[in-house]
Specification:
By secondary structure, the protein is α+β, with helices and mostly antiparallel strands. It has helices at 33-41, 79-91, 186-194, 232-244, and strands spanning 8-16, 19-25, 51-56, 63-69, 74-75, 102-106, 109-118, 121-128, 152-156, 159-167, 171-176, 204-212, 215-222, 226-228, 251-256, 259-264, 272-276, 278-286. The chain contains four helices and 18 strands. The longest helix has 13 residues, at 79-91. The relative contact order is 0.17.
Amino acid sequence: MNRANGRSLDFVKMHGAGNDYVFVDGRCLDLDWSALSVAMSRRHTGIGSDGLILALDSDCADLKMHMLNADGSVGRMCGNGIRCLVAFAMDAGMVPADRSPVEVETASGVLPVTPAWRDGRVVSARVDMGEPRFGAVEVPFDVPGLATLEDYPLSVDGTALEVTCVSMGNPHAVAVLGEPVADFDLARLGPLIERSPIFPDGVNFEVVNVVDRGRLMVRVWERGSGQTMACGTGACAAAVVTRSKGLTDDAVTVSLPGGDLGIEWPGRGPVVMDGPVETVFAGAWPL
């Protein structure tokens, strides 16, 4: 892969359960990545994606991930993106094909990713997502007198919700609903919750239906990208919150608009996510 020749930038578009990103080998390149993420992510005039992910060298791991959302802001972690990144890096020769697990440096720490192969290509991966964190500083949130937010009453534009907050390397507010998540006005309420003053860094927002003890239905509003087909950290957050409430078992299938993710959490320790990896197409972006 030529990466960049002064006139164009090589890229690969990939997705995990419909959560799609543009992947670029960013080593030794000095470009305005924020502006490129905005331009590339546009659905009608760009490549179309939920953001841009760079593969970089790491001083402490096999690989470093630098993620930008569709609005150009920097993301600390992406569960679907990290799986695809490992496949991208192996295809590009950045990581040996026999390396397993692959250690990936992220803005939220180093995470191990174990790829699964079929017919000579990575088709899925299993990720140790680290431990969920609930504290006010860790999420973060700003509600005087409260160290954690569990079933916190949040009123947004006339809609009353109860949200539980957790960090999976990035902040999440999870609302377990009685009404179908398909009927929830996520397009209207999602951006208002993302920018609520109680979340100083913004927040990702998930609405959840508990189908049974082994399955959740989830829709996501992602900070910086809007509605997405899936969110790996969001699926983990939903599984952690429902498991904490005693509503689900240790292992659940999280069904999102773009597909299913498998999440395991026994109530303590790290969350483990398993999900697909798909390559859509490759091309060159004009500079």
